[in-house]
Automatic annotation (TrEMBL), chain B:
Record keywords, A-Z: Phosphoprotein
4-aspartylphosphate found at: 52
PANTHER family (UniProt xref): CHEMOTAXIS TWO-COMPONENT RESPONSE REGULATOR, STRESS RESPONSE REGULATOR PROTEIN 1
InterPro entries referenced in this protein's UniProt entry, alphabetically: Bact_response_regulator (IPR050595), CheY-like_superfamily (IPR011006), Sig_transdc_resp-reg_receiver (IPR001789)
Alphabetical list of SMART domains matching this protein: REC (SM00448)
Official protein name in the record: Response regulator
Pfam families, alphabetized: Response_reg (PF00072)
Species of origin: Rhodanobacter glycinis
A single BP term in Gene Ontology: phosphorelay signal transduction system
């Protein structure tokens, strides 16, 4: 027979199961917050149901067994035999976690059930009223060998409308033994006039004999689907007095409720494959459209090229403009393929907040905005952890306890807002709470204790806020379960920086704090300003440029240690001579003849001295690390339109270098 | 061989069913839910419909009811693919006009045997 | 077993046109009704209308030589047609019966009720 390799469907199964569990979790949390939508219950049930069916089909017996019990419990909820309460939701949320972990282990070919899952399964079994029956094979009892059977079979009128055809049944019976039609008749309920006959109604009956040593169960299996669609009487033709061992297998009985558990054959196929991405068909269509335009433009241009005359210069220019436009659109479309909505990250927060509320005894209303904002898949995958940390932090340290809030004249329930939106070439994600705001006194005291600042040092609000991003800084009065994990805000900042982004905080005492993460849309392409330094080209990411200006020599002050600073909007900024930092020859060294580009990272600014500005250009970032090695102050390289190589300035790194020279 | 409509919201199940049936030479059209299945059914003459019970938008039972109301599908076999082994679901499916059912889990051999059984 | 089943299926599905000898019941002046190749339920509203129109003719010949696909509903329609024809004193004859038609009628035990030519029966 066919040897269908089911492992090819495992990956899809795991993917859709993960999605199903996410949907289940979201629906459970919605139920928890008081929604009573019946559709929510259906969603939860459907997800469990699909996972169970798939798990059983694809040979993940442990997952199927666990999900089966969870489904039984859900069935009680669905049929309104069980009310939804907080306890039930808690158990079901745990079940979601458990199934997620089991699937994860399945996909890695590890043993699936563990003590934890087993304990939870037992708990579920106890919850389900009555007994959870293991799938029982229909009792294939009474397999007495007989010489044959009398079968009286009369169709009920609607039989044909179920798609069951006696012709098919008779063929099946014929497979079992010799079938003899003793009598075929028209039933009394048949209309007397042909005109009144509805051909989809059935008015026929039969008396049959099936000769041969056929088991009763085999006949039952043939009529299995016709329960309620016919009158049926089955009686043995004659008993045969042989009481031998009845070891006869029940033949090809269908449907079969049990499948032999198959060993898990997880190989690299499931785990080691490159990650895939789901792309909306509209994006693919846009791509194909663009491609079509590109082909048209290309053929037009090659047409001009075939027999070029000077008079065609205008057409050539038009064609090139069109080519440029199409190429840019194509590029945007291609980039968009990698873009996914941030909602997939936001989705985990309702659960996190739910758990934290319980753990910390706080009341939190979570608001999500801008879930549809899209960002690069790589960025998306890496932004989850920093966001989780910020959300934890906001609930743990930002929001007060209900009692404290009440005393402060606030609503007992705090509000935590997550918002994502596009701003220029960036994605901005904000996490804001209406809690107590940063505790300046505590932060300053802690910083002094840690030796981060000197005693008596005067600090602006912004400087105080910056302190919490210092390595090893934590103000929690006591190490709760959540903080004290050795992960501080400094790690958040480092993670965000690794993604080419920045993070900052604004806080109003008593009103709350807002953490703002700014991320590039993609890591692969940046909008850059091309600058000349000697014979070399450096690209400065456009998003980090504040202003470019010429300085008069007397605007520059030398400070101790050889550094240079200049006055810019109420502050003194260090000047970073790029030719010196990167050892370029033949560069402009006189500040009056060069240009200073002010760049900013995390609110800190530095002026870069370059020879000249050459223009803006999009740069496809090539990793230096991958092709050469990591270079301080350089984030990558790109190829310019004339084919030469330009280096891309790592703004964060340069600013840190500049700050150091200022401090020195 | 036969033109078969496979309806399941689970891509892995649908894929498995379609792959198996195509391997046996059948022409398979896939649909993600009952509503899409009805659209497909109107556009093509299928000789067999295999449908999951629990699906979003339109479930399998409502789909069977709608199909049976169409002249072209009055007598066409419709099998429910279901993990529901309890009788109420089967009866509900039957009352709607389902021909029979295939209980999950099933393997490709069982699927083919059942399809052969209904197609005769 | 699968092989046997497959072979049977081929018999019914793919070699329908081998019509057996025509019955010889007053072929000349009889009304003739051609049964379609696909005689299954979807075709029966039209077939029923045609049979109703032929009821008055008295002598009717069915041409079943083209029948490739047939179901119980089709045979039932013909059985009830025959019964009504009988009560009106009409006669039913056959001009050609395909293997598919013979096999189905034989299996359901309806060959006699349909007055199918005995020669065609196994």
């Amino acid at each position: 027979m066919s040897a269908v390799d089911l492992t090819q469907f495992h990956k899809t199964f795991f993917e859709e199961s993960r999605e199903g569990l996410d949907a289940m979790e979201a629906a459970l949390l919605a139920l928890d917050s008081g929604a009573t939508d019946h559709e929510l219950v259906h969603t939860i049930f459907r997800a469990a149901h699909s996972i169970k069916g798939g798990a059983a089909t694809f040979g993940f017996a442990d997952v199927a067994a666990f999900t089966h019990v969870a489904e039984s419990l859900l069935e009680e909820v669905r049929s309104e035999r069980r009310a939804v309460d907080a306890g039930l939701i808690e158990v079901l949320l745990c079940s979601v976690d458990c199934m997620r972990a089991m699937l994860e282990r399945s996909s890695q070919g590890q043993p699936v059930a563990d003590a934890e899952s087993e304990a939870l399964r037992v708990e579920l079994v106890q919850l389900v009223s009555g007994e959870v029956a293991a799938p029982v094979v229909a009792a294939a009892s009474m397999v007495a060998p007989v010489s044959g059977w009398n079968i009286a079979f009369t169709a009920l009128p609607h039989l044909l409308q179920t798609g069951n055809d006696p012709l098919r049944l008779f063929r099946e019976l014929q497979q079992l033994g010799r079938l003899e039609v003793v009598r075929a008749f028209i039933t009394d309920s048949a209309p007397a006039q042909l005109a009144e006959l509805d051909p989809s109604q059935c008015y026929l009956g039969w008396e049959l004999r099936l000769h041969g040593a056929v088991a009763r169960a085999e006949i039952d299996a043939v009529f299995d689907w016709l329960d309620g669609d016919c009158e049926l009487a089955i009686a043995p033709l004659a008993e045969v007095a042989v009481a031998g061992p009845v070891a006869q297998a029940a033949g090809e009985s269908l449907p079969v409720a049990t499948a032999a558990p198959r060993p898990i054959r997880e190989t690299a196929a499931a785990s080691g494959e490159g990650s895939s991405i789901r792309v909306g068909i509209d994006k693919v269509d846009a791509l194909i459209n663009m491609m079509g335009e590109l082909v048209i433009t290309q053929s037009m241009l090659s047409d001009i090229g075939e027999k070029f005359e000077l008079s065609q210069l205008g057409r050539l220019r038009d064609g090139l403009v069109q080519l440029e436009r199409t190429t840019r659109e194509l590029q945007e479309s291609v980039m968009r393929i990698r873009m996914l909505p941030i909602g997939s990250v936001f989705n985990r927060f309702p659960r996190l907040v739910h758990d934290l509320e319980r753990k910390l005894d706080k009341r939190v209303k979570l608001e999500l905005h801008g879930e549809h904002t899209e960002l690069d898949k790589t960025v998306l995958e890496k932004i989850g952890d920093p966001l989780v940390h910020l959300v934890r932090n906001a609930i743990d340290h930002g929001l007060e306890s209900p009692a404290q809030r009440k005393a402060a004249g606030k609503s007992e329930t705090g509000t935590l807002k997550l918002n994502a939106y596009h701003e220029g070439g960036n994605i901005v994600v904000q996490i804001s709470d209406d809690g107590a705001g940063l505790n300046h006194a505590a932060i300053v005291a802690k910083a002094q204790q840690r030796g981060l600042i000197a005693a008596g040092q005067e600090l602006s609000d912004a400087e105080v806020a910056e302190l919490i991003f210092q390595p090893g800084f934590s103000t929690a009065a006591q190490a709760t379960d959540l903080s004290g994990r050795g992960v501080g805000m400094d790690v958040v900042r480092r993670n965000v920086r690794d993604l080419g982004g920045s993070v900052g905080v604004r806080s109003v005492s008593g009103k709350g704090s807002t953490f703002t993460i700014t991320l590039p849309l993609t890591l692969a392409i940046i909008d850059g300003l091309v600058t000349a330094v000697g014979s070399e080209r450096y690209i400065v990411p456009l998003t980090s440029i504040v202003e470019s200006l010429r300085l008069r020599a007397d605007a520059v002050r030398r400070i101790a240690g050889g550094g240079e600073v200049f006055h810019f909007r109420d502050e003194y900024l260090p000047i970073m001579r790029l030719h010196r930092a990167f050892a370029c020859n033949d560069a402009v060294t006189d500040i009056e003849h060069g240009i200073v580009v002010v760049i900013e990272e995390d609110g800190r600014r530095v002026g870069l001295l370059v020879d000249d500005l050459l223009g803006q250009q999009q740069a496809v970032v090539k990793s230096l690390e991958a092709h050469y090695q990591r270079v301080q102050g350089i984030s990558g390289a790109t190829i310019l339109s004339d084919g030469s190589v330009a280096l891309i300035v790592d703004v964060g790194g340069v600013v840190r270098l500049g700050q150091r020279s200022k401090a020195a | 061989m036969a033109k078969i409509l496979a309806v399941d919201d689970s891509a892995s199940m649908r894929g498995m069913v379609a792959f198996t049936l195509r391997g046996a030479g059948h022409e398979v059209t896939e649909a993600e839910n009952g509503q899409l299945a009805l659209d497909a059914a109107r556009g093509g003459s299928f000789e067999l419909v295999l449908a999951d019970v629990n699906m979003p938008v339109m479930d399998g039972i409502a789909m069977v009811r709608e199909l049976r109301a169409m002249d072209a599908y009055k007598g066409v076999p419709i099998l429910m693919l279901t993990t529901e082994s309890h009788t109420e679901k089967k009866m509900e499916g039957k009352a709607a006009g389902a021909t029979g059912w295939l209980v999950k889990p099933f393997d490709p051999e069982q699927l083919l045997a059942t399809v052969k059984r209904v197609l005769g | 077993m699968a092989g046997k089943r497959a072979a049977r299926q081929q018999d019914t599905d793919e070699q329908p046109a081998k019509a057996s000898a025509a019955a010889s019941v007053g072929v000349d002046d009889a009304a003739r009704v051609l049964l379609p190749a696909d005689c299954r339920m979807a075709a029966q509203a039209a077939l029923k209308a045609e049979l109703l129109g032929a009821l008055d003719a008295g002598a009717i010949v069915l041409d079943g030589g083209q029948v490739e696909r047939v179901d119980t509903a089709a045979l039932q329609l013909l059985v009830l047609f025959r019964r009504e024809l009988d009560t009106r004193g009409g006669t039913l004859g056959w001009h050609g019966t395909s293997d598919a038609l013979n096999e189905a009628a034989g299996l359901l035990g309806l060959a006699q009720l349909l007055n199918l030519p005995a020669a065609a029966l196994a």
